[in-house]
Amino acid sequence: MQSTQTQQLLKITEYLKKLLNIKKIRGTIHDNHIIDHYYLSHVKINPFGIIPIESLTKCRIEAGSKMLKLYHYDRSTAAQRVRLGLEEKGLEWESVIVDTAMGDASQRPDNFHEFNPKGLIPLLDHDGFIIPESTLILEYLDDVFRDHKSLSPSTAQGRARMKLWMRKIDDGIHVASRTIGVCIVNRHFYKEAETKTIADYYKKMRDETRKSNDKINTELGLESPLLKPSLQAFKNLFMEMDNHLAEQAWLAGDKFSLADISLVVYLTRLTSFQMAPLWAEQRHLSNWFDRHQNF
After folding, report:
1. pTM over 0.90
2. 154: burial class by Cβ within 10 Å (0-12, 13-18, 19+)?
3. Which terminal residue of the chain has fewer beta carbons within 10 Å of its beta carbon, N or C?
């Protein structure tokens, strides 16, 4: 039964109603999580699109299991793609929330930076074997758990195409996504944070490029010189994807793969920023995105 608070939220936003109607999301939304993380300080920023759809994909935890442990948090697109991969593979996993949005290190393992010098999530612990970086985690899971659903093409050419699409993330599209997010949303609660809190946040941030970009984007917002190139990067990506999808159903061929999982999170993120018009003219890409919602 929904709480009174959730009932009130349902009156506020149609977006949450849509969430509750999505097969993989229904029954997984925690009232207090919604209220604490989205509707206290963030609702005034983007009241109708702040919750990324796939960020609340059901976390299936096997009681007492130490097999797979994922350090993550909901708003990270990198963590979102790993959770989608775990869901599609049908794997049980333990969730450890590490909200790095404001530098919270309380839930990180003691040697967190040993495994990821940048101090970022997600981080996967598989029986003591630690692996960072979302795309590497996805490939690792698909390689190790071959008795579960395969998320890679069966041919070498298909796998190469898949990896080429996934490589676009590290070639700049993830940085572009971060720039857009900080310029449009994050800068508002960074500016509201106490001076000491934000100073500690930057002090703990080990990725110097990320730190420099965040400072520029927080200060200048929509006037940031980094915003326009980031938007153009996505426009270019979307045109390329649309042209490719005109010839085949999925990015790596006729089969849903890690390439689709890796990139769909950006469309969902931009949708939450009310920026779906960026690909409105790309019919094949729009159809591909729609298929994800009911896949």
Report:
1. no
2. exposed
3. N
